[in-house]
Design brief:
alpha/beta, Rossmann fold, two-stranded antiparallel ribbon, about 40% helix, about 15% strand, binds 2'-O-acetyl adenosine-5-diphosphoribose
């Protein structure tokens, strides 16, 4: 089983789904989450940063962590893998469903239409508590984070934290795509966070599932083929000829 085989499956697939994780953006210079030395959580445990409790307990610290990531994203650009996916989708309208765990917006910036962003978008904020009329009556006052001048409600990143529900409509669309696709490419994810990883297992049960990752992942056991390589290296080879 090889690259040529998977390329053939891509060519034959009437419905293709792609599930991406942090490794998708590694070659753009965005650190992954779980790389022990350089990952985004190298110095912290996820539960210390990416939860509502963490935000309420260490508000400025967590806000600053997101601010640092937002700042870094200004200096990066989509890579050849993001571009190959966007170009495929534009060449084959309606054939590809792109599902991402990434909040970096790089698929969207590459031109991919209708991206199913399971974990939200780091570029956006929302209210921490249900907004009252005062919250929306005037712009929030600056701070780390900005807050409502009247009731003190805080702004927070519009991403999904541990323990939170994924957006229902996005998850439903992703589950439908995982069930309906002939082939799912699973690119750059460790496969340890659910329900996202479950989508790959669903796809493997209904059709074919291929892992694209330079390192072992938790989804290798369910894959029909594992391609050991990078997103920017392999996706153009898999997609550009169809
Ligand atoms: P991880 O950091 O857990 O995994 C990144 C994966 O990318 C690893 O399996 C790497 O081997 C692989 N990888 C590294 N470089 C690559 C490259 N150039 N090409 C392809 N693959 C490469 O990131 P995720 O699996 O995305 O959620 O993590 C899942 C979720 O955990 C994230 O969306 C985040 C976190 O909780 C939230 O923040 C809600």
């Amino acid at each position: 089983m090889s690259l040529a085989q998977v390329r053939e499956w891509v060519g034959a697939a009437r419905r293709l789904a792609v599930l991406t994780g942090a490794g998708m953006s590694a070659e753009s210079g965005v650190p992954t989450f779980r790389d022990a030395q350089t990952g985004l959580w190298a110095k912290f445990r996820p539960e210390e940063l990416a939860t509502e409790n963490a935000f309420r307990a260490n508000t400025a610290h967590v806000w600053d962590w997101y601010a640092m990531r937002r700042e870094k994203l200004k200096g990066v650009a989509p890579n050849a893998g993001h571009r190959a996916l966007a170009e495929f989708a534009l060449r084959h309208p309606g054939r590809l469903t792109l599902i991402t765990q990434n909040v970096d917006g790089l698929h969207q910036r590459a031109g991919s239409p209708d991206v199913l962003a399971l974990h939200g978008n780091i570029a956006q904020d929302k209210w921490l508590d249900a907004p009252r009329r005062c919250c929306t009556a005037q712009p929030p006052v600056d701070g780390r984070p900005p807050r409502c001048a009247v009731c003190g409600n805080l702004r927070r990143p519009a991403v999904v934290w541990f323990g939170e529900m994924l957006p229902v409509d996005v998850l439903e669309a992703a589950e439908a795509a995982a069930q309906a696709c002939d082939l799912m490419l699973v690119v750059g994810t460790s496969g340890v966070v659910y329900p996202a990883a479950g989508l790959a297992r669903t796809a493997a049960a209904h059709g074919r599932m291929v892992v694209v990752n330079p390192e072992p992942s938790d989804l290798d056991d369910a894959a029909h083929v594992v391609l050991r390589g990078t997103a920017a290296g392999l996706l153009p080879q898999l997609l550009a000829h169809t």
